[in-house]
Amino acid sequence: ASIPDLIAKKRDGHELNPDEIEQFISGLTNGDVQDCHVGAMLMAIFIRGMSEKEICSMTMSMRDSGERLKWPNYRGSVVDKHSTGGIGDKISIPLAPALAACQFKVPMMAGRGLGITGGTLDKLESIPGYKTQLSDEQIVELISTVGCGIFSQSLKLNPADRYLYAIRDVTATVPHNALIVSSILSKKSIEDLDALVLDVKYGVSAFMKTAEQAESLAEWLHKVSEMLGMRTCCYITEMNNPIGFCIGNAIEIEESLDLMKYKVGHSKDLEELVCEQVQTIEEGREMIRETFKNGTALEKFHDMIIGQGASKTIADQLLSNDETVVGAILKLAPIQHKALAPQSGFIQSMDSFKLGTIVQRLGGGRLKSTDKIDFSVGIRLLKHIGDEIKENEAWAILYTNDDASTRYSLFLDELHTAICISSTPVAPLQRIHKILL
Ligand code: URA
Q1: Which partner from 44, 192, 407, 425 sits 20 to 30 angstroms from 158, CA to CA?
Q2: CATH number reported for the structural domain that contains residue 31 in this entry
Q3: pLDDT tens sequence across 355-396
Q4: What is any one GO biological process for this UniProt entry (predicted)?
Q5: Does 58 map to a domain?
Q6: Which of 169, 183, 187 to mutate to test the pocket of ligand 1 (most atoms within 8 A of CB)?
């Protein structure tokens, strides 16, 4: 069949057989498939869906579109975690070095921003010199010496996901079980893991809006990973409110460093989520917390970013407890706008969809696949859910390069409507809804 025939078959609601799926996926790398084919096929899949058999075939064809990593010397200790995407979701950034500090090996193939959700790789690229595309040799070197690396799909590692991911991001075809499952698991199954934790999010800014949808996605992820022979556990977590205090790229690296430095005032919300995600490893939670308290996670992060191209000077400076030294590297946008509370009370919710959209539109995310990310824009929240606030007290700071435009004042209006204050006390957030083992 021709590529347009395959698209037509899916458009008309028929099941594609494994050979047809393989033809389409290998076409992404051999030149038979063009961007317009990809956009049309993704939309057909989005609307028509895929059977269990199709999802498995798609995941395996994507996994096999390039090479696979192998860790025979580290059997039993190769682990990773992946999230379906959220706002302020920087969990992977402190978690990978923390796991490495606990003697695990973490070959983390991460993603870029999708829609309004930020991407681990985009955030890390706000560190000058940090490279996300590594050769196989560099990955092996990093894992054997440091223990962790956070890198991207490449021309050699899962080129199919690299291609599909970029086009999904800009064609409104992200939130579909078949596409999310194949994207995540094709990446993770290349890593040759002993254990995988998946964080499946639901809420206003997640791809899955309800806990039920997230549970269905989690079940799919669980089922397909089992078929691929990967031991996986899924956390289903709340994503109505942003995670931690910071949303953006450079600003989320700063916040991740604050946790790894165990700085006074670091986000407890972020700390708990990071630690909770390893509670299935015996005493994992406290082990991870200890690596933040004793600085070993920070050391691993330092060594990892050097291993991925940052200079020693930059890496050393990022360890500094002096905010101006760190700030000079992770340059935040110079214009700061404070959002003030319209009334006194307790913070009930902060709309992560609105906050994420503002950061994306200010340049922190992409609208076209060729868009360059502006690492410097972001939002710093000054409060967590449940905190008390006084009328006219600042609850957020927006960092931007753009002060005067009408577009900008629309964002400010949005910012002011993103908070909900209750006159009676509010319970702290329960992030974890369910765990599928
Ligand atoms: N993360 C991924 O890697 N892929 C998706 O499709 C969604 C989140």
Answers
A1: 44
A2: 1.20.970.10
A3: 999 999 999 998 887 889 999 999 999 999 999 999 999 999
A4: pyrimidine nucleobase metabolic process
A5: no
A6: 183
Q: Given the CA of residue 184, which atom of ligand 1 is nearest to it?
A: 3
Q: Does residue 105 sit in the same domain as residue 239? A: yes
Looking at the fold, whether 11 and 93 belong to one and the same domain comes out as: no
Instruction: Tell me the torsion sign for CA atoms 108, 364, 160, 53.
Output: positive
Domain match, 309 and 390 both: no
Same domain, 355 and 270: no
Phi/psi of residue 132, nearest 5 degrees: -100, -20
59 domain-assigned? no
Please give the full DSSP string across 344-401, using - where no structure is assigned: SEEEEEE-HHHHHHHHIIIIIS-SSTTPPP-TT-EEEE---TT-EE-TT-EEEEEEES
Burial class (CB in 10 A: 0-12, 13-18, 19+), 374: buried
Host domain of residue 187 = 72-318
Specify whether 16 is located in the same domain as 79. Answer: no
Determine whether the shortest distance from the Cβ of 307 to ligand 1 is under 6 A. Answer: no
Tokens representing residue 297 in the block: 């996670």
Give the ligand 1 atom nearest the CA of 168.
6
Contact (CB, 8 A) for 422 and 348:
yes
Within a domain: residue 327?
A: no
Q: Let me know if 432 is exposed, middle or buried by CB neighbors in 10 A (0-12, 13-18, 19+).
A: middle
ipTM of the complex: 0.95
Those residues with Cβ within 8 angstroms of residue 406's Cβ, 6 or more apart along the chain or in another chain: none
Instruction: Tell how far CA 172 is from the center of its chain.
Output: 18
Estimate to the nearest angstrom the gap between the alpha carbon of 212 and the chain centroid: 21
pLDDT at 281 exceeding the cut of 70:
no
Q: Which are the catalytic amino acids?
A: 82, 161, 168, 183, 187
pTM, whole model, 2 decimals?
Answer: 0.92
If you count them, how many residues does the chain have? 437
Amino acid occupying residue 284: G
